[in-house]
From TrEMBL:
It comes from the Bacteria. The keyword Transcription applies. This is Putative two-component response regulator. It holds the Pfam family Response_reg. Signal peptide: none annotated. InterPro entries: CheY-like_superfamily (IPR011006), NreC/VraR/RcsB-like_REC (IPR058245), Sig_transdc_resp-reg_receiver (IPR001789), WalR-like (IPR039420). Residues 28-144 form the Response regulatory domain. The modification 4-aspartylphosphate is found at residue 79. GO terms for molecular function: DNA binding. Keywords: DNA-binding, Phosphoprotein, Transcription, Transcription regulation. GO terms for biological process: phosphorelay signal transduction system. The keyword S-adenosyl-L-methionine does not apply.
């Protein structure tokens, strides 16, 4: 799976062992963005919150879906415009797969058509990439609380 980096592997620890020792209040999150600086910046920023646990990152929607199947996070934070199937189709496939993971769309585009397309695909939330870190945390926690 090129482009998929489980966070436990990066830290030199087994990701499953890391999950076993995670606080029950931490909500597992997978990040998908094709831009390395955005992906790693989000991983670092979300790592500052005790309420969230980044269990992996992916550089494409296809890799994100595989990682979601492996890690079963509460939330997938996904860019919408990526090479391959893209985030909107990735969200659609996530929802039709029956996974309990909730998707939050992340993009620099905030036009109505993009927002509607993401929500129609099954996203439970939408964030602009210039959102405040605490707003991102709040959105991810709210998404994690959406019933399956």
């Amino acid at each position: 799976m090129r482009g998929v980096i489980p966070s436990g592997d990066v830290a030199g620890r087994d990701s499953k062992a890391r999950m076993a020792f995670s606080s029950s209040s931490e909500r597992p999150v997978v990040i998908a963005d094709d831009q390395t600086v955005v992906r790693e910046g989000l991983r670092s920023m979300l790592g500052l919150f005790d309420s969230l646990d980044v269990v992996g990152v992916a550089s494409s929607a296809e890799d994100a879906l595989a990682l979601v199947a492996e890690q079963t996070p509460d939330v997938l934070l996904t860019d919408l415009r990526m090479p391959g199937i893209g985030g909107i189709e990735g969200i659609r496939r996530l929802v039709t797969s029956g996974a309990a993971t909730r998707a939050v769309a992340l993009t620099t585009y905030d036009d109505d058509a993009t927002i509607v397309a993401a929500l129609d695909a099954g996203a439970v939330g939408f964030l602009n990439k210039d959102a405040d870190p605490t707003a991102i945390e709040s959105a991810l926690l709210s998404a994690a609380a959406v019933p399956s």
